[in-house]
Specification:
Blueprint (H helix, E strand, L loop, with lengths): L6 E3 L5 H11 L2 E5 L5 H15 L3 H5 L9 E3 L22 E5 L24 H26 L8 H4 L5 E7 L8 E6 L5 E5 L7 E4 L5 E3 L7 E5 L1 H6 L9 E4 L7 E8 L6 E2 L15 E2 H12 L2
Parallel strand pairs: 1-2
Antiparallel strand pairs: 2-10, 3-4, 4-5, 5-12, 6-11, 7-10, 7-12, 8-9, 8-11, 13-14
Helix pairs in contact: 1-4, 2-4
């Protein structure tokens, strides 16, 4: 596996081929040329920081037990448990706020839950909704490049994601004395792809090199870290990697923020491997996206 995360300009003529190489080796890349307006990013970032600076009582107004959306307090989730072992991994020292797709429906799984917002700051709701819309657009563009890289028609994935149940998550890893070796346990993401706006000042995101070592993901100005999830790994018949990654503690104990958009298919989408030749054998049984996602989320909160 490469010892560095590739940088890919999405507007470049070789974007599809470079994405294919990146996803087939490390499963991660840093995307530039994405077209997301900086004011949209800056607005969401500032509103998220403002929200996490509020009192715990204010943040808890946006929490409902059993609802995947809204506020989750520190140490409520253990991502390390999503790999199947539900007891060994410790809960992560982070707090989050989660937002689902704007629509609701009885057939949309997570999307059928009530959307929860805090009373303050007022700016949180419009700024996150604007950001969510931009991430939808960017994910759609990247999925078109994915389809091309897999030798499919550009709009191949559209019928599987036209009612997607993607989640936007703002994250805050509070300042500490450096006593937490891990801020997010080692895990793979669950769905199709992740778009991460990483903290430009405080690092910590690392990707497994497949042989026991870890590679730091670089902070690149005006970029998004992109990685594929388990369902895209299955869609590619294992040609692309859903790679183990984690967030380590900061040696200086500094606070860290990030914004992640987890793109998922429709709740009822059937994900089955894309075979590139008549001789290729399927490595995975088809799975329905919703139950797959539900199982993973359940493990993280067990």
């Amino acid at each position: 596996m490469p010892t560095a995360i590739p940088l890919i300009d999405l507007s470049g003529p070789e974007a599809g081929a470079r994405i294919d190489r990146a996803c087939g080796t490390v499963g991660f890349f840093v995307a530039t040329g994405h077209g997301v307006p900086p004011p949209i990013v800056d607005g969401a970032w500032a509103a998220a920081r403002d929200f996490f600076d509020r009192t715990l009582d204010t943040k808890m107004e946006a929490r409902r037990e059993g609802n995947p959306y809204g506020f989750e307090p520190v140490r409520h989730e253990a991502l390390g448990r999503t790999l199947g072992e539900t007891s060994a991994a410790l809960p992560d020292p982070k707090q989050t706020f989660n937002l689902g797709p704007p629509y609701r429906g009885p057939d949309s799984g997570f999307g059928s839950h009530e959307r929860i917002w805090p009373t303050s700051p007022y700016e949180l709701r419009p700024n996150l909704l604007n950001y969510y819309a931009e991430m939808e657009r960017l994910a759609r563009r990247i999925l078109e490049l994915f389809a091309e890289a897999m030798g499919q028609e550009r709009r191949f994935f559209e019928p599987f994601v036209d009612r997607h149940v993607s989640a936007l998550r703002i994250l805050d890893y509070p300042a500490s004395a450096g006593s937490d070796p891990l801020r997010a346990g080692a895990h793979t993401d669950y769905g199709t792809l992740t778009l991460l706006r990483a903290d430009p000042e405080v690092g910590g995101l690392e990707v497994s090199d497949g042989s026991g070592g870890w590679v730091a993901v670089p902070a690149v100005a005006d970029s998004f870290v992109v990685n594929i999830g388990d369902l895209m790994h299955r869609w590619s018949n294992g040609r692309w990697r859903s790679t183990l990654h984690r967030v380590i503690g900061d040696p200086q104990g500094r606070r860290r923020n990030s914004i992640a958009f987890f793109h998922n298919p429709n709740w009822d989408a059937l994900v089955e491997p894309i075979l590139l030749s008549p001789d290729e054998q399927s490595r995975f049984e088809p799975v329905v996206a919703g139950p797959w996602l539900e199982t993973k989320v359940g493990r993280a909160h067990s």
